[in-house]
Design a protein that fits this description.
The protein is mainly alpha-helical. The chain contains 13 helices and three strands; from the N terminus they run E-E-E-H-H-H-H-H-H-H-H-H-H-H-H-H. The radius of gyration is 27 Å and the shape is globular.
């Protein structure tokens, strides 16, 4: 008996009793692709994800060629102190507060020997001023006692200082020592998840996942680009999707206002024509139309 095979409906044959038996052809197994663990289900291969992520960074580099750390500082000591103070407040408020702090306590030795109550009064505008006073005096003492009054240039040493975690350490390493690092702050976390670069929620896992997408030499500038975009356009509650320069690359486009005119009203800092966060910003920022922040109590 000749058996006819039909690729559309399956096979018909005999079970030996003369009766025809219909068998269903199994569907081919679905291919799982090469999705990277920790990324979202966009259907992208790892190669496609890397290409899209790097294109986003290139686009942001053109939008923010003047991106820089938004804390005023003149040396590593000032930067580590300012970064510790920036927790739970704005860089603007820190920049308005630190001039008085560093005028009175310009070195780790000075701050280590300071009267805590006097430091508290200076830091009061930053919020959580008692805890922050303990941290900056404590890290100053550690610098004096353990590092000869100098800020160390290694991650494992920085994170031993009171009030200093990986985020603060990478800010200092990248901007005071030129050593690449990824700064996973609240803006960075929000944007990389919106862009589906990763589904991770823990800072260290985000750092590792995103770090795999870029050459190490790009990490510090990448951090600036992402954070600047989060502060100016891709806000937490009302992202200005309608004027976003990377909208075609964003899988979350439409979460915010898509009308260009309405979205334009959501822009902040220099993108909206308002002052920035630094009292003493780089010249490149001013040349691009940026406006220096006012000192504390002005206006």
């Amino acid at each position: 008996m000749t058996v006819r095979r039909d690729s559309a409906v399956g096979e018909q044959g005999s079970d030996g009793s003369g009766k025809k038996v219909k068998t269903v052809k199994k569907a081919p197994a679905k291919k799982t692709g090469s999705r990277v663990p920790g990324t979202s289900g966009t259907g992208e291969s790892h190669t496609a994800l890397v290409r899209r992520a790097r294109r986003i960074n290139r686009e942001l580099a053109e939008v923010y060629p003047y991106a820089h750390p938004e804390l005023d500082f003149e040396n590593p000591f000032q930067l580590v102190v300012a970064t510790v103070l920036s927790a739970q407040t704005t860089d603007l408020r820190v920049n308005q507060t630190t001039p008085a702090l560093f005028a009175k306590y310009p070195t780790p030795e000075d701050l280590a020997a300071a009267d805590p109550q006097e430091v508290e009064e200076i830091l009061r505008p930053c919020g959580f001023f008692r805890a922050k006073t303990r941290s900056v005096i404590g890290l100053s003492k550690a610098l004096v006692e353990d590092f000869g009054g100098e800020v160390p240039g290694k991650l494992q040493d920085l994170v031993k200082l009171p009030g200093v975690g990986r985020k603060t350490a990478f800010v200092v390493l990248g901007n005071a020592f030129g050593r690449p690092g990824i700064t996973v702050d609240t803006h960075f976390q929000r944007l990389v998840r919106r862009w589906k670069w990763t589904e991770e929620t823990e800072p260290e896992k985000i750092e590792a996942a995103v770090g795999e997408l870029f050459p190490k030499k790009d990490w510090t500038d990448l951090s600036h680009h992402v954070i600047w975009h989060g502060r100016r356009i891709c806000h937490a509650r009302k992202p200005a999707c309608g004027v976003c320069p990377i909208a075609p690359l964003c899988p979350s486009y439409g979460e915010g206002e898509t009308d260009p005119e309405k979205a334009r009203k959501l822009l902040k800092y220099e993108k909206g024509g308002f002052p920035g966060q630094r009292l003493n910003p780089p010249q490149a920022y001013l040349d691009a139309g940026g406006i220096a922040a006012p000192p504390l109590g002005a206006g």
